Amino acid sequence: MTLPVNQTHDPTLASWVESANRPDSDFPIQNLPFGVFRRTKSDEPFRGGVAIGDQILDLTALLSRTLFDDAAHHALAACREPALNRFMSMGQAVQSHLRACLSSVLRSGCEHASLIAADLVPQADAEYDVPARIGDFTDFYASIHHATSVGRLFRPDNPLLPNYRWIPIAYNGRSSSIQVSEHAFQRPVGQRMAPGASAPELAASERLDFELELGLFIGRGNAEGSPIPLDEAESHVFGLCLLNDWSARDIQSWEYQPLGPFLGKNFATTLSPWVVSLEALAPFRIPFTRPATDPQPLAYLDGAANRNAGGIDITLEVSLQTSRMRHDGIPPQPLARSNFRYAYWTLAQLITHHSVNGCNLRPGDLFGSGTLSGPAPEQAGSLLELTAGGRLPLHVGADTRTFLEDGDRVVLRAWCERPGHRRIGFGSAAGTVLPARAVPPAG
After folding, report:
1. For the chain, is the Cβ count within 10 Å smaller at the N or the C terminus?
2. Is 146 considered catalytic here?
3. Residue 38 belongs to domain with CATH number
4. 438 compared with 367, residue with greater pLDDT
5. Are residues 291 and 329 both part of a single domain?
């Protein structure tokens, strides 16, 4: 079910790209995540690249080098396209083979280093696009700690609905508003029902929030009517990224019953530009466990491989930089830190349940994990939880916040660390809140 640790994970491997050898680098040679880029403010086409240290290996340029076998050359040809869907569709064996080839030519001592150095682009000189053409976006609700905390705020008498411990909960989101890191978006407008009011109003959200999540890109798809068994589910994963599913809590609380999120969620979602493969994360697999007092998954969502190594030890962090902090040169301030180990459902379970009714997943489809809050208050992945629904303001630099203000910049980061292995990072997913557009006039 899970990919094995192999020679590409060797912690003694170093790269001739010196920045990749720094202990705090997100992108050592043991990582090699894929993304889509071009040089900033150029008219170049977007194309596939791989992050190595503070550089990008331009896969289109590398294609002209006669360094690899036919299988790797075929994979590189797919990466020259402005979205990685065709490469994603090739499956993990092809992707693993290309990753091994790239690892071999990026290692210290490679005889082709001086040749390949011409194919590097500094990350500081690049701009990014969403890594795939996303046909469908499904956002799950995989943290029981987040679900319980939010439930207490929205439904104090019934915080965790009875189906939660039995079924991976999700909603179908809108893919057109998914953007890559460092974009800015307008504060959303929608209907709000103020406490004690007799009728809603159309107005800009006053309770704008972030959500600390992971994103999962589907690689190889499945045929319509052909469910994906649990033990095969991870073979359909291309990789993971960071995801911020921005939320307008006041709009959401008015509209979400009976059918769930709509305008409170569909205005913006932010992704990190780099997609980390499950192979790169192999050294950080952990068992998947449930409290003994909780019901165990139904048979189609349960299996020995999933129990033994279905989890992944990924630390996640969210930081906030107000406009005042940015003006004063103060970096973003960390607000919370959590871990994917606290998820109530594994990646494999999300995929298997999504397809159990015969739903066909396609290369480039995106899953969100849902807000990944941990059990402790300081591990909450949203302002809704961190401020107890706005009742307990946070101090951020010289400012206070209950919810996001115009000019606020939110930054998500994630990484894996374990003794005996190189640190693997995800880069960042950052977005900035702009003032709302004018509310449409009545009539």
Report:
1. C
2. yes
3. 2.30.30.230
4. 367
5. yes
